[in-house]
Each structure stands twice: as structure tokens, then as C-alpha cells.
Design a protein that fits this description.
Radius of gyration: 19 Å
Largest sheet: 7 strands, mixed
Structural class: alpha+beta
Distance between the termini: 21 Å
Oligomer: single chain
Number of strands: 7
Shape: globular
Number of helices: 13
């Protein structure tokens, strides 16, 4: 797909389409069945190397990654699981109602995960707030497709089921996209900045925005754990701005006659 936004923005990294599909290319990057991997790795391969990447319910073993992509949510499949994930999302061992069970999970976890599980991700100051986020805040999807693909936008076409477009952006690129997004909608709030893991902001929250009459862009890569995962793949100054497809298409219509054409923007955009 040729993008008018991309032609004018000339971003450093590849914009990446989130595609629902029942097939995956033979040469696509995906995790081996049963092997843990963060879906941010898959996104990074598309953004940095121009590769198609993706997975399904069997190859994406991370509970958070499956929830983020719309492959089902099981954080609350039992009371024990709800307590465990609420503790992990808040203050870890301090937050759990079942310290014996939680300690056993820490002991069984890989060495690299033990400290994070003990301390928690600190996205919520109390487990009660984390439970509320799990039960009511996180958009829940169990999509009727086998795969979710991260595909470089330039390699897509109109026949594909594109749900959102992720732009990995530096501050200047972010300012241009946010201004363009705000120019095509009423009001003053064109961007949603949801609480949650970095993976949630590049898919699930964008899915939810796409269902609204006036969808907003979704800013992401704001979580410490996600940024740590991506340090060797994207620079520390890179954020994501995910455009739900309806918003992306509306912005495409204006991208040849917007902020990208004014003199001050052209001083920045010399790539």
C-alpha cells in the first residue's frame, strides 16, 4: 500500500500494519510453539527490518501478548489467576492475597523474571485498581481469525484485513502525526494514552478505538518493561502512535495538504 502520510512524513522506521488473517506467509517470523517470546519483538522485526511477523494462539504463549492482539483474555480465568496478575501489575508480593502461591510462582519463574514478579510492574498502586483494569479497562477480543500479523505497510494491499497502522516515531515525527490527526476531527483531544503494557497500545486499544464514531490515535511504548525489551531494537526516544484504520484513512485524505506542507515542518523533515 502506498501511503500519502508516509510519503510526506518520511519516517525513520517502517510503519507497520496490524492484520487479521487466517494464513501466515511461509517466510514470516513467528515463535516456535511452546517457546516464550514478547510480541514486541515481532513488531520490531517489521518496523526495523521490513519483515512480516506474527503468530496465533499456539505460538504466542505470553498471556499479555495474546490479550493485546485480540487472541483471548485469560487473566481472570480463575480467582487465583486474577489475584496473581493483579499483583504482578501492581506491587508484586506486597499486593497478592495469596503470598504462598505467589512465592511459588516466583520460584518457578525464569531467573530474569523473578525480580519483576516480586516487585511487580507498578502500573497500579493497588491490586484493587489492577483488578479493575483487568475486568473493565482492558479491551477484550477473541477475534474470529487464526493469526495476527505485523506487516510493513508498504507490503500490504487493499484486500487485507488491516485493523490499525503503527508508527514508531521520534518526537518530531510524533508532533506531525498528532497535529494531522487533530486536524481531521472535532475537539482538542486526538490522542488516547491508555494505562497498560506497551503491547496493549499497539493493538487492543486501537481495535477498541476503531469501533467508535470518532476514533483517536493511541500513544504507546510508555511502559518501563516494554521499553527495556526494545532497547536493542528501537532507540530510547522512540514512541509508538497507532492509528485505528478509520482514522488512518481519514488522515491519508489530508496528508498532501496539512502540517507537512508548511515551511517550519520542512526545516525538520530533511531526510
Amino acid at each position: 500500500m502506498k501511503s500519502v502520510i508516509v510519503a510526506n512524513l518520511r519516517p525513520e522506521f517502517e510503519p507497520v500494519a496490524v492484520v487479521w488473517s487466517n494464513t501466515i506467509p511461509d517466510d514470516a517470523l513467528q515463535f516456535s510453539k511452546g517457546k516464550f517470546g514478547c510480541i514486541l519483538y515481532l513488531f520490531a522485526e517489521a518496523a526495523r527490518r521490513g519483515k512480516v511477523a506474527g503468530g496465533n494462539r499456539e505460538t504466542i504463549t505470553c498471556n499479555g501478548g495474546r490479550a493485546a492482539l485480540g487472541l483471548g483474555v485469560d487473566f481472570d480465568a480463575s480467582d487465583e489467576r486474577l489475584d496473581r496478575f493483579a499483583a504482578a501489575f501492581s506491587k508484586g508480593l506486597k499486593s497478592t492475597q495469596n503470598p504462598t502461591t505467589y512465592k511459588a510462582k516466583i520460584e518457578a519463574a525464569p531467573k530474569s523474571w523473578k525480580a519483576l514478579l516480586e516487585l511487580g510492574e507498578r502500573r497500579h498502586c493497588r491490586a484493587e485498581l489492577a483488578r479493575e483494569w483487568i475486568l473493565e479497562g482492558l479491551p477484550r477480543y477473541d477475534i474470529p481469525y487464526e493469526y495476527v500479523l505485523f506487516k510493513p505497510l508498504r507490503h500490504t494491499d487493499d484486500s487485507e484485513n488491516i485493523r490499525a497502522v503503527i508508527f514508531p516515531v521520534n518526537p518530531v515525527e510524533l508532533s506531525g502525526l498528532v497535529t494531522l490527526a487533530g486536524s481531521v476531527m472535532q475537539g482538542t483531544d486526538s490522542v488516547r494514552v491508555p494505562q497498560g503494557a506497551c503491547c496493549n497500545s499497539i493493538a487492543a486499544f486501537a481495535y477498541a478505538e476503531a469501533e467508535l464514531e470518532a476514533p483517536k490515535a493511541v500513544m504507546g511504548m510508555l511502559g518501563a518493561e516494554g521499553r527495556d525489551v526494545m532497547r536493542k531494537r528501537l532507540r530510547d526516544d522512540i514512541l509508538t502512535l497507532t492509528l485505528p484504520l478509520p482514522l488512518f484513512l481519514r488522515m491519508e485524505q489530508e496528508a498532501d495538504d496539512c502540517i507537512f506542507q508548511i515551511p517550519s515542518w520542512k526545516k525538520f523533515n530533511r531526510r
